Each structure stands twice: as structure tokens, then as C-alpha cells.
Amino acid sequence: MRTKKKIHLHKGQIVELPIRRLGINGEGVGYYQKQVIFVEGAIPGEFVVARIDEVEKNFAKAKLVRLKKKSAYRIQPKCPIYETCGGCQLQHIDYRFQRRLKRELVQEAFRKYTNLADIPIEKTISMSEPWTYRNKAQFPLQSIEQRVVMGMFSAKSHRLVEIKECPVQHPLVNQALEIVRDIIEQLKISIYDERKHQGVIRHIVVRISFATKEIQLVFISRTKSFPEEKALISEVIKRLPQVKSIVLNHNPHKTSLIFGNESRLLWGTEKISEQLGEITYLLSARAFFQLNPVQTRKLYEEVEKLAQLTGNETVIDAYCGVGTIGIWLARKAKRVLGMDTIPEAIENAKENAVVNQIDHAEYVVGEAEILIPKWVKKGLKPDLVVVDPPRVGLGQALIDTLLEVKVPRMIYVSCNPATLAKDCQQLIRGGYQVKKVIPLDMFPQTAHIESITLLEREVVT
């Protein structure tokens, strides 16, 4: 029998192929002679001509050259710099189709990484208005021809794409960014030069409260102070009366990390307040809070439904941050225990519990995989564990801990379908069943998808 000769792709090669599905980074995924090709800008259902740009061992990346068959869901992007900015990946796809494709991303991850024959996945919880939803922006600055330019670095480069107005950000965020940029330019404040590691202002960070319209402004600086501080503060509060907090964060290192370890309040209050439903959250400059308050409330409401609390349960809120999920659930729980490795977050969580008159929530600095077994050995019997880890997932130590403790029910909030599915497979092997998976679109126009998964432990009789 003759064996089929393997096709070897090379850079610059032109290929024609159908696009079968959406990739995790928003690319169209197709197959050419059984080899996976990721085509930037292609939409599932299209037939494309593409140029091979990179060749790896198990896949290739390609640029879209032209469409032989165009998707009915292809639209004109709303943002004029969409293709160069890189912040969004799906503006060229009608939002109705985005929702369906994101559900398929979660579904595909469970098919690939678990042995579930039937995946209990629901429809994507979407937004009625999928624009102007972001409450925070952190933009680098550059000095170009005596102008202060603000924006985002283009994908895989250090080329700054200037952004005057971003359609996924709240209008007040856009307004604040541009006013502050203009003030810095007028005052001729030194701008950080990445190559020379000289200059002062590196980034502007703006966060607003959707409920109160308060603005928190953070300047990321290479130096601990600069001569124009008082003039800068004076102009900001004159031109932006909504500003309630101005902070200087010191980052002296040659690094791609935005925030440094030291912060100093320049003016106003250390925190601004956001409100979701009846719950108030106080947010310091470095406190993590979801970027889309509208969808965050929906997420917490879904977590509450899945939790099915009666008032008698002990809940562990791992990766608790500033206590957002735990405080939301505390109203219907007997006791809430939260932990996080960041001391500032735990201080915020304690303060948020006080502000919301919750006296049965405790927050501790530490790692969940260390604290949970210690508490269980002392007699704690948690009824529910809620986890909301970063993109890398739970980590093996915490998975082993959860399997050892044998908590009856878990709710896993995830921003990465692949790590979610991989973690769930280990939990399934350890005796848990996936009862429900709910995709939630936290970031319309991007390839990111949040999801909420309910797992219950099998009862052996």
C-alpha cells in the first residue's frame, strides 16, 4: 500500500483552505492536507486564500490574502485602528456569531481535555450593548516629535499605536485619559524612554466606578517623585472634577511589568467605591476588580444560583482578591473563609466586609493549598469551595488539596477554557462530576471568554 506523502509547509507559501472553527486567540482554524493552519482575521465558515507566515512542528500561522467564500457574519469593525491595535480580535464578526463561537471555544476545550461524553454547557450569557463596558485602562506613553503619544503596543512589537478613543472603554475612561495626556504634554513632564531607561512617566492608569462615576488615576513613574507633581495635581482636579484618587506608583526597573511595588497617595482618597447590586466594594490602586461591572454582576448572580445556599453553609473563597465573590455569597452563607497571597488584597477584603456589615467573613493571607488542609485538620467542614484562579488555572498543589479534602461542591470561575477543562478532568478522576458549564461574555469584541462550572462530588453508597 502506498503511504501518503507528508506535506511540508514553508514560509511564504500560498494555500487555500476552509475555516472550521475559532482559535483560542481569535484566529480562524483550518486544515491544509491535515495540518492545522491558524489564519488571522478569518471566520469559521469562510473559504480563504492565505499566506504561510510561521511554521511550527504541529501547526502553521498564516495571513489572510483574500476570501473565496465570505461569511454572512463578517462586518466592518467599529474601531478605525482595530487591525493595528491588537486589543480586540473579533470586531470583524457580528456579535450574535461571537457569542456562539465563544460557547464553542469552551465546548471544544472540554471535548479535547476531558472524557465527558455529554458536556452540560449552556448558552453564552451575553451583553445587550457589547461596547463601552471597560472600567479601566492602562496605557504606556512615548515622546514622539515633542508630542506625548498614548496607546497600546501592537501585537508582538514595541510599536506604539496611538489611541484617541477606544470603543470598548467607558466614555469617561477615554475622556480622562486624553485630558491627562494633554496636561502632561502641556507641563512638559519627562516621558520614560524604554531603550535608554531614562525619563519619568511610564504609564497612565485610569479606573472609574460605574455606580458613582468616581475616577482613580495612577501615574506609573520611574522615579519616586518629579518636580511637576503639584502643577499636575492642580490641573487634573480642575479639568476632571470626577477624580477622587491620584496615586503615584514607583517602578524603577527595566521591565515589561506595569506596576512597581511602592505606591504613594498624591491627592484625595486611597480608594474609590464601586457598587454591584446592594454590595459596595472599595478599590485601592492595585486591587483586582473585574473590568466589566455589568457582566460581573451577572457572573456573581449565576454563582449565587449555582451555590444554592440556605444559610447553613461554610464557604471557602480561594483566590479571594478583595473579597468580591465571597462577600456576595456571604448574605446567604453561615460562614465565609477567604485567602489570597497578596496582603493588600486581604486588607481590602476585610474592609469591604465591614463596609457591607458582614461579620461572618474571615480573610487570611496565604495559599489555599496550605490553609485549607490545615483548617480541615482542625475540624473545618466546608460545604462549598469557590475558585477564581488566573489564566494558568488551579495548580497541581491546590487540585491535590481539593481531592484530599473532598469538598461536596465546587464552583470554578475561569477565564481560560483550556486550563479549566484540564483541571476539571483531574477533578473528574478524583470523584467529581461536572454538573453545569455556563459561558459568560465578559469581554465582547475580544477572543476571551469567562465561564462558571459547577462540580459535585459523587456520593458513594
UniProtKB/TrEMBL annotation:
The active site is at C415. Pfam families: TRAM, tRNA_U5-meth_tr. Coiled coil: none annotated. The keyword Transferase applies. S-adenosyl-L-methionine binds at Q290, Y319, D340, D388. It comes from the Bacteria. Residues 8-66 form the TRAM domain. The keyword Metal-binding applies. GO terms for biological process: rRNA base methylation. GO terms for molecular function: 4 iron, 4 sulfur cluster binding; rRNA (uridine-C5-)-methyltransferase activity. InterPro entries: MeTrfase_TrmA_AS, MeTrfase_TrmA_CS, NA-bd_OB-fold, SAM-dependent_MTases_sf, TRAM_dom, U5_MeTrfase_fam. Keywords: 4Fe-4S, Iron, Iron-sulfur, Metal-binding, Methyltransferase, S-adenosyl-L-methionine, Transferase. Belongs to the class I-like SAM-binding methyltransferase superfamily. RNA M5U methyltransferase family. This is 23S rRNA (Uracil(1939)-C(5))-methyltransferase RlmD. It comes from Thermoflavimicrobium daqui.
